[in-house]
């Protein structure tokens, strides 16, 4: 599923505007262009596995009660740009949560691969043993 295909219900979203921290000088300092997008995860209507993957992917952006996701966008000088950025990031997260991870197939080395490894170790050990100090009294 691509981010463009994600349908986000407006009832699940709550926007708050913050003072921006982006470049823009006095404009950024005096106007509230930053956006904090709070998303009610239950109102998104996702199935349990997708919801759990979304919570895992979002990490620290999910509240402690695991019911809300908070996305903050302050990069643009305009409210419109920040709103679009926050919604795009949300759509990308939801699209990524819809992807089912591939199961890992357990593998183990073959008997001959183990044997070759042990042989190499023994050979290397013998080579290192020959590097020791020569004791002239033995000869």
From TrEMBL:
Tell me what this protein is called: Aminoacyl-tRNA hydrolase
Supply the source organism's classification.
Bacteria, Pseudomonadati, Pseudomonadota, Alphaproteobacteria, Sphingomonadales
User: Would I find Hydrolase among this entry's keywords?
Assistant: yes
Query: Taking every annotated instance into account, which residue ranges of this chain make up the domain Prokaryotic-type class I peptide chain release factors?
Result: 5-131
Q: Name one GO molecular function term.
A: ribosome binding
Keywords for the protein's UniProt record, in alphabetical order: Hydrolase
What Gene3D superfamilies is this protein classified in? 3.30.160.20
The kind of enzyme this is, by top-level EC class, is: hydrolase
Q: What family is this?
A: Belongs to the prokaryotic/mitochondrial release factor family.
- In this chain, the stretch annotated as Disordered covers 97-139
Q: Enumerate composition-biased segments (Basic residues).
A: 99-131
Q: Which GO terms describe its biological process?
A: rescue of stalled ribosome
User: According to the lineage, what is the superkingdom?
Assistant: Bacteria
**UniProt KW Chloroplast keyword:** no
> Which EC number(s) are documented for this chain?
3.1.1.29
Q: Which InterPro entries match?
A: Pep_chain_release_fac_I, Pep_chain_release_fac_I_sf
């Amino acid at each position: 599923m691509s981010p463009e295909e994600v349908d986000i219900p407006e009832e699940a979203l709550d926007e708050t505007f913050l003072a921006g921290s982006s470049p823009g000088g006095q404009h950024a300092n005096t106007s509230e262009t930053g956006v904090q997008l709070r998303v009610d995860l239950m109102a998104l209507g996702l199935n349990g596995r997708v919801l759990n993957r979304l919570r895992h992917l979002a990490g620290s952006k999910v509240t402690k009660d695991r019911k809300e996701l908070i996305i903050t966008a302050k990069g643009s000088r305009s409210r419109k740009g920040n709103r679009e950025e926050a919604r795009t990031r949300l759509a990308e997260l939801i699209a990524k949560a819809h992807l089912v991870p591939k199961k890992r197939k357990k593998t183990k080395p073959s008997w001959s691969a183990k044997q070759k490894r042990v042989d190499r170790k023994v050979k290397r050990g013998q080579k290192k043993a020959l590097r020791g100090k020569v004791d002239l009294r033995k000869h």
